[in-house]
From TrEMBL, chain B:
It comes from the Bacteria. GO terms for molecular function: ATP binding; ATP hydrolysis activity; phosphate transmembrane transporter activity. Gene3D superfamilies: P-loop containing nucleotide triphosphate hydrolases (3.40.50.300). InterPro entries: AAA+_ATPase (IPR003593), ABC_transporter-like_ATP-bd (IPR003439), ABC_transporter-like_CS (IPR017871), P-loop_NTPase (IPR027417), PstB-like (IPR005670). It comes from Gimibacter soli. The keyword Hydrolase does not apply. The lineage of its organism: Bacteria, Pseudomonadati, Pseudomonadota, Alphaproteobacteria, Kordiimonadales. PROSITE patterns: ABC_TRANSPORTER_1, ABC_TRANSPORTER_2. One of its GO terms (biological process) is phosphate ion transmembrane transport. This is Phosphate ABC transporter ATP-binding protein PstB.
Length: 439, 274
């Protein structure tokens, strides 16, 4: 078959050798495709495991155990709403010994509990948040004073964990936080159908607390929102203007090369370094308030800027030069060329870069630790200069807390963080679609 | 040129003199040199553009004809390494003078590019953009009027009048190029520069654009760069042959294509090199 002068003879497309080559090529294609599919499957698996783990653990964080109790609400303790102004009544309710009222109702349910120490232990099945819960109920419904009311009151975190099955009741009594005596009381209440796990709005509406059953993410959500707002307001215009200048106006020389290298390097700097910079410059030198979203936003903006600049430059560079020529040829000024033609076409890419930067900023913990946004803050932040914390920092704080119940709060807070992220991405995709055009 | 007898070269210079004495040129280039960094792209070109005349610039690729054309409305300004020497005047005023506003110059000297480049906007917006940025229309009705007449002049009105709000990029290549011409004439220019406007079009679309140029001839001074000798012969009154950055020969189109004075011109138009 093979003649000495291979080049001159016609190619034998159906020879054995050719068939083997074809078979080998097909095999390689199959392996390559299988490898790609495998890679996708592995990433999907990781994602499912991660999300499944967080959701299965975190769902409980949105629910709390409540115990039904019939509470006597005497005028003697609470004050008479008919003879007082609403403010006086509210004050008097706030001063009232609510736990005493609850303890009294427990005496009726558990007549066998008589000793002082046992009574003190018994009231512990309720959360200390019951005080506020009762006070709010009475203030909002003044006509309940002087009556008996059946109320669902918040159980303590340990009882809650037992009800949710997160504490193993079979282990030795000394190894668990709930004693056999408490378990017996709980059993009696459960038998009477007075224990229920209900959706817990407090988690979504209140700030942090030392008690897991009263802790909420709203303070952190507001803190994150304010911080990101400052970041966006600062990083987006500065980033886009920098990109426009570097792409459209800056002369190509050593200085701009130097700038470009530095911007690319900044994108790779560990985020904690930006935190140190923020601490030194904004708090140390400029004396801006500590723990404030303002400083957090500034610091995260520094971190986000390189990402936005790099993405925006790429997007601006991708606009066909023919569009610029067309506008210039009609007598559009450089600014008109940019704002009428280049920016609208580059906008989808710029938005993608911005959203990547913002998502990065949303998930960032380290720089915020440096500027004091890690403090324990109960109040909902009122503005960009007030003390605040952020969602990822809240996750970090709760993950670090010893109480068992904070574990599910941590996962629940991660779910809120992910929800936030998904909403942001959804907005970005919508904006992208709005700006996207063919040419 | 050195090989030419003296008599003939004197005639080369004498010929354009005849036309120049009768009319003043719309645009005049005198001893124009263009450099890209170290590269000397255009070497001492003298060329006049007249009102109601089409001037074709022909020559092999890289001969500097497009570069020269882009100097006429200072499109080369954005190329950082580009340097222009000599003088180019529009109605007797130097366009490279510091007092000249480039934006106004480009409105007066419009340009049509090799590849149709409509904006990714509606047909209406494409044409309305120029008049709008120069404030040529007082009211919406005026603007509608300008858009309609521009599209009519470009011979596109009948094809697009029912879909002015559809994207200009959705038109066929030939329609896009006529849209670009409509866009250029909407700002009411005095000169139109065309850089190989038909090289991306099929023969039918080319014929339509050529017919359009024929129609526009009376109103504007037109300079067109083309690689098609037939096209130059069909549509132009004057032809300029560029080679290696030099303007080798310039004259009446019929004369250039029938009795070229320069050997290089003859070789090029008969297809012997290029």
């Amino acid at each position: 078959m093979t003649t000495p002068s291979k080049i001159d003879s016609p190619t034998l497309w159906d020879s054995k050798e050719m068939q083997r080559r074809t078979a080998r090529r097909y095999r390689q294609e199959r392996i390559f495709r299988a490898a790609g599919l495998g890679a996708v499957a592995i990433s999907a698996l990781f994602l499912v495991v991660l999300l499944g783990n967080i959701i299965s653990q975190g769902t409980g964080g949105f629910f709390q155990t409540y115990i039904e109790t019939e509470v006597e609400l005497p005028v003697k303790v609470l004050g008479d709403p008919r003879t007082m102004t609403p403010e006086e009544f509210a004050n008097s309710v706030r001063r009232a010994n609510m736990l005493g009222l609850v303890a009294k109702s427990l005496e009726e349910t558990f007549p066998e509990v008589t000793s002082r120490s046992e009574k003190r232990a018994l009231i512990k099945i309720f959360s200390t948040g019951v005080r506020g819960q009762l006070a709010q109920f009475v203030t909002e419904n003044p006509n309940v004073v002087g009556t008996r009311q059946k109320l669902w009151l918040l159980a303590s975190d340990d009882i809650d964990q037992v009800v949710k099955g997160n504490i193993d009741t079979e282990t030795d009594e000394g190894d668990r936080r709930v004693s056999d005596r408490e378990l017996a009381w709980l059993q009696k209440l459960e038998d009477a159908g007075r224990v229920d796990v209900k959706f817990h709005t407090t988690f979504l509406t209140s700030g942090d607390s030392r008690n897991p059953e009263m802790a909420g993410v709203w303070g952190a959500v507001v803190g994150s929102a304010l911080t990101l707002f400052v970041t966006l307001i600062l990083a987006f215009p500065v980033g886009v203007l920098t990109a426009i200048y570097l792409e459209e106006f800056a002369p190509q020389n050593r200085f701009t090369d130097f700038l470009e290298i530095n911007i690319n390097n900044l994108a790779a700097v560990p985020s904690i370094v930006f935190g140190l910079l923020g601490l030194a410059v904004f708090i140390g030198t400029m004396h801006l308030p500590r723990s404030a979203p303002l400083v957090g936003g500034f610091t995260l903006a520094l971190m986000t800027l390189p990402t936005i600049i790099i993405a925006s430059r790429a997007a601006i560079k991708a606009v066909p030069p023919s569009i610029r020529d067309a506008a210039r040829g009609l007598g559009a000024s450089p600014m008109q060329v940019i704002f009428h033609h280049v920016l609208p076409l580059a906008m989808p890419g710029i938005l993608t870069g911005t959203i990547i930067g913002m998502a990065q900023a949303l998930g960032e913990t380290a720089p915020l630790l440096m500027i004091g946004m890690v403090a324990f803050i109960v109040d909902i932040p009122s503005g960009i200069t007030g003390a605040a914390t952020a969602l990822p920092v809240q996750v970090y704080l709760w993950a670090d807390s010893p109480e068992r119940a904070f574990a599910e709060k941590t996962s629940a807070a991660i779910m809120v963080l992910l929800f936030f992220l998904i909403m942001m991405n959804a907005v970005a995709i919508k904006l992208r679609q709005k700006f996207e055009r063919k040419w | 040129m050195s090989a030419m007898p003296d008599q003939l070269s004197r005639m080369t210079e004498a010929m354009p003199e005849v036309t120049q004495t009768t009319r003043t040129p719309k645009m005049a280039a005198r001893d124009v040199h263009v450099y890209y960094g170290e590269t000397h792209a255009v070497k001492g070109v003298n060329l006049d553009l007249h009102q109601d005349e089409v001037t074709a610039l022909i020559g092999p690729s890289g001969c500097g004809k497009s570069t020269f054309l882009r100097c006429l409305n200072r499109m080369n300004d954005t190329v950082a390494t580009c340097r222009v020497e000599g003088s180019i005047t529009l109605d007797g005023k130097d366009i490279y003078d510091n007092k000249i506003d480039v934006v106004q110059l480009r409105a007066r000297v419009g340009m049509v590019f090799q590849k149709p480049n409509p904006f990714p906007k509606s047909i209406y917006e494409n044409v309305a953009y120029g008049p709008r940025i120069h404030g040529l229309a007082e009211t919406r009705l005026d603007l509608d009027e300008i858009v309609a007449t521009s599209l009519e002049k470009a011979g596109l009105w009948n094809e697009v009048k029912d879909r002015l709000d559809t994207p200009g990029t959705a038109l066929s290549g030939g329609q896009q190029q006529r849209l670009c011409i409509a866009r250029a004439i909407a700002v009411n220019p005095e000169v139109i520069l065309m850089d190989e406007p038909c090289s991306a079009l099929d023969p039918i679309a080319t014929a339509r654009v050529e017919a359009l140029i024929e129609e526009l001839k009376g109103r504007y001074a037109i300079a067109i760069v083309t690689h098609s000798m037939q096209q130059a012969a069909r549509i132009s009154q004057k032809t300029a042959f560029f080679h290696l950055g030099n303007l080798v020969e310039m004259g009446e189109t019929t004369q250039i294509f029938t009795t070229p004075r320069e050997e290089r011109t003859r070789d090029y138009i008969t297809g012997r090199f290029g």
